[in-house]
């Protein structure tokens, strides 16, 4: 990287850039879970059944998951300012369509446009924060990302549960619009280009293969929980996704300028930490899906109460993420990973004996400690993996990391829901118990599986290398024959 670009990065006022990026990412992630509690009201208003209704979340996750792998290419093709503005404008247009949607088709269209913007915004935010901070301060920067990732999806169900009790469900989108507009204006004023433009060639076939590959897997896994692993709705898209994804990977390894660089997995630390991050995300998203089902259908709590049960854990994780980022800058990810995954394993095991009389206080406290464990692991482990990559691979590393987490979340949810329903049916057929007791038995079995997954992560954490000496300060870039574009357009 040129000396001029180094000077730009050193002298840039980071605070406004960080604020703009975090706000954009926050509303994008908040939007992903905002409709979960409001789904019954939305279904009644639009006269649709549950199978159609769940697509307001599934369609968002699918498009979001398809866009994320492409962002590495986009980050190298367009300036930071142009790309972020495009992402937020897309997100704003989609939000407006959802807010005025007269039919379900309009609503799904708006959700898909929202997801296209959100899929660009999240990896871009992580890439920019990693680039504007030197390596010895990246833990603190990624701690702020952890705050967004943890707090936004957890506050969504609580906020929507409260709002839809008093207002029409479209208010969930109207409250986002002013924030989006303000963030777009602020981004236009303060955002600067900090990425290196390499003008990669657009390989249309790679885009198609990426969309079919990642989209097929996400679609298949998303259907597994409701339809069973052997249904056509699961097997067909999963097989198509696996085949096209394999083709996509092989093509990327042959291209001089790949859309997504799979050679990041040649770095052992990145591969290890990505696997651990997938396990943690699987554990976090899967539990967040199961708990509302358990609380509302087996424990007679309202949607708002089940959302409130998740909220303290989200607050704990949000508060701790910046703190664990600073700790990571001093001690590295090894000890944080071991302690955090140990906590996730123990607290998950504590959820394997739930009953219809388990107190809300018990669930809330244990869940909060579980989220503390997630906070100790998530961003420190992610940052440790990204830190081993050379600068030009950071956009590919963040895109790959986000993509793998998205897939892990879908797999984790599908596996745990599938285990829960299968175990409940088996218990109801073979045991002398009522349906509620059988369902709770299914929940306990699902958490046994989740505890086993957490144990694998705990073991893997011991393979993370510890920091035996302080991190050496780095310059903001490495020399390259390709001159970066530093304009602000």
UniProtKB/TrEMBL annotation:
It holds the Pfam family MFS_1. The chain crosses the membrane at residues 12-35, 55-75, 87-107, 113-133, 145-165, 171-190, 202-222, 234-253, 265-295, 307-328, 335-354, 360-386, 407-425, 445-464. It is found in: Cell membrane. It comes from the Bacteria. Keywords: Cell membrane, Membrane, Transmembrane, Transmembrane helix, Transport. Residues 17-469 form the Major facilitator superfamily (MFS) profile domain. The keyword DNA repair does not apply. It is a multi-pass membrane protein. InterPro entries: EmrB-like, MFS, MFS_dom, MFS_trans_sf. PANTHER family: MAJOR FACILITATOR SUPERFAMILY (MFS) PROFILE DOMAIN-CONTAINING PROTEIN, MAJOR FACILITATOR SUPERFAMILY MULTIDRUG TRANSPORTER MFSC. NCBIfam families: efflux_EmrB. This is MDR family MFS transporter. It comes from Alkalicoccobacillus gibsonii.
């Amino acid at each position: 990287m040129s000396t001029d670009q180094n000077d730009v990065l050193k002298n840039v006022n980071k605070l406004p850039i960080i604020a703009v990026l975090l706000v954009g990412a926050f509303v994008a992630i908040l939007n992903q879970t905002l409709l979960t509690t409001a789904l019954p009201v939305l279904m009644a208003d639009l006269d649709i059944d549950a199978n159609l209704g769940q697509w307001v979340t599934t369609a968002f996750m699918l498009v979001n998951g398809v866009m994320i792998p492409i962002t590495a290419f986009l980050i190298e093709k367009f300036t930071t300012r142009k790309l972020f503005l495009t992402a937020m404008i897309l997100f704003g247009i989609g939000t407006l369509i959802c807010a005025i949607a007269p039919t379900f088709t309009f609503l799904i269209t708006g959700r898909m446009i929202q997801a296209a913007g959100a899929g660009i915004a999240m990896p871009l935010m992580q890439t920019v924060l990693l680039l504007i901070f030197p390596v010895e301060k990246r833990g603190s920067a990624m701690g702020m990302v952890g705050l967004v990732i943890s707090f936004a999806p957890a506050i969504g169900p609580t906020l929507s549960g409260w709002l839809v009790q008093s207002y029409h469900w479209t208010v969930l989108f109207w409250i986002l619009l002013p924030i989006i507009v303000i963030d777009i204006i602020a981004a236009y004023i303060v955002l600067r280009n900090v990425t290196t433009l390499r003008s990669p060639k657009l390989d249309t076939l790679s885009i198609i293969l990426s969309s079919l590959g990642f989209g097929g897997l996400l679609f298949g896994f998303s259907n597994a929980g409701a339809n069973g692993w052997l249904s056509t709705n699961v097997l067909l898209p999963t097989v198509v996704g696996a085949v096209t994804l394999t083709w996509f990977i092989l093509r990327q390894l042959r291209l001089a300028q790949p859309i997504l660089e799979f050679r990041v997995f040649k770095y052992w630390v990145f591969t290890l930490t990505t696997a651990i991050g997938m396990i943690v995300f699987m554990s976090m998203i899967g539990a967040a899906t199961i708990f509302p089902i358990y609380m509302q259908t087996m424990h007679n709590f309202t949607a708002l109460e089940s959302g409130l049960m998740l909220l303290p854990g989200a607050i704990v994780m949000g508060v701790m993420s910046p703190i664990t980022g600073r700790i990571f800058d001093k001690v590295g990810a090894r000890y944080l990973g071991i302690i955090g995954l140990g906590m996730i394993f123990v607290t998950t095991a504590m959820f394997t004996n739930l009953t219809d009389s388990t107190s809300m206080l018990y669930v809330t406290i244990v869940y909060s400690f579980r989220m503390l464990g997630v906070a100790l692991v998530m961003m420190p482990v992610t940052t440790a993996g990204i830190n081993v990559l050379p600068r030009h691979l950071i956009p590919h590393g963040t895109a790959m990391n986000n993509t793998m987490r998205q897939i892990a979340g879908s797999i984790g949810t599908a596996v745990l829901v599938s285990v829960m329903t299968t175990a409940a049916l088996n218990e109801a057929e073979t045991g002398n118990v009522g349906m509620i007791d059988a369902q709770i038995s299914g929940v306990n079995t699902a958490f046994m599986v989740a505890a086993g997954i957490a144990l694998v992560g705990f073991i893997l954490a011991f393979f993370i290398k510890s920091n035996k000496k302080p991190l050496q300060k780095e310059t903001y870039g490495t020399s390259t024959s390709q001159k970066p574009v530093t304009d602000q357009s």
